[in-house]
Write a structure and sequence with these properties.
Radius of gyration: 18 Å
Number of strands: 0
Largest sheet: none
Helix content: over 70%
Structural class: mainly alpha
Number of helices: 2
Oligomer: single chain
Shape: rod-shaped
Order of helices and strands: HH
Strand content: under 5%
Distance between the termini: 30 Å
């Protein structure tokens, strides 16, 4: 995942927190739940990015080992 995608996920998370807080303050349960959903989506995006990064790192290590032979 690119740095831009990671920043986007962080922004989505912060936006979700803001929606949740606004919903809590105004008593708008729908807005609060929408904020929680946005945070969950951002968390999934971040988890996918971490997996992609880990797989890429592992693939690079395998390539480096094979080049040495």
């Amino acid at each position: 995942m690119s740095m831009g995608d990671k920043i986007g996920a962080k922004a989505d998370n912060l936006g979700g927190k803001a929606k949740e807080a606004a919903g809590s303050v105004t008593g708008d349960d729908s807005l609060r739940e929408e904020g929680r959903a946005d945070q969950a989506k951002a968390g999934i995006k971040e988890a996918v990015a971490n997996v992609k990064d880990a797989v890429g790192d592992a693939a690079d290590k395998v390539k480096n080992v094979l080049k040495k032979d």
